[in-house]
Amino acid sequence: MLGVGIDVCDIARFGLSLDRTPGLRERLFTPAEAGRSLASLAARFAAKEALAKSLGAPGGLAWHDAEVVSEETGRPRLEMRGSVLARAAELGATSVHVSLSHDAGIASAVVVLEG
Fold first, then answer.
1. How far is it, in rounded angstroms, from Cα 4 to Cα 111?
2. Residue 19 annotated as binding site
3. pLDDT digits (tens, 9 = 90+) for 14-41
4. Predicted pLDDT of residue 56
5. Which of 12, 90, 104, 112 has the fewest CB atoms within 10 Å, measured from its CB?
6. Is 7 annotated to bind ligand?
7. Inter-CA distances, 39 with 22, 31, 76, 99, 103, Å
8. How distant, in Å, are the alpha carbons of 22, 23, 48, 73, 102 from that of 7?
9. Sequence-separated (6 or more) residues with CB below 8 Å from residue 70
10. Mean pLDDT to the nearest integer, 79-100
């Protein structure tokens, strides 16, 4: 294991931030992610934060360089490209695992980076 990250996000507070800050949704999420429900967006934000932590939280990571996609089974998967993929390669990562959850007003994510 090369790294692990965890993050939690208050869904209502995250929604207020999206409402208050024009362009935040587009800055944080890819077009494929942006149309999801608020709880799903909060979980995806938590996943991107958890991924950054698993990578050692370096500066310069672009939000769109990490995307949470759903497999046909509904299982979430992280796609990395650009700055995020470069950092993962620098660390020798060969796989990344993500788990998302949202309940009782809180979204959470755990990311495990393996080499």
1. 6
2. no
3. 999 999 998 999 999 999 999 999 999 9
4. 94
5. 104
6. yes
7. 19, 17, 14, 14, 9
8. 24, 23, 9, 24, 12
9. 76, 77
10. 96
14: left (phi over 0), alpha (psi -120 to 50) or beta: alpha
d(CA 104, CA 30): 26
Residues 38-88 have pLDDT tens digits of 999 999 999 999 999 999 988 889 999 999 999 999 999 999 999 999 999
Helical spans, DSSP H, in 21-91: 24-28, 31-34, 38-54, 82-91
- Rg for the chain (alpha carbons), in Å? 13
> By three-state DSSP, how is residue 74 classified?
coil
Residue 48 · residue 63 · CB < 8 Å: yes
Global pTM?
0.95
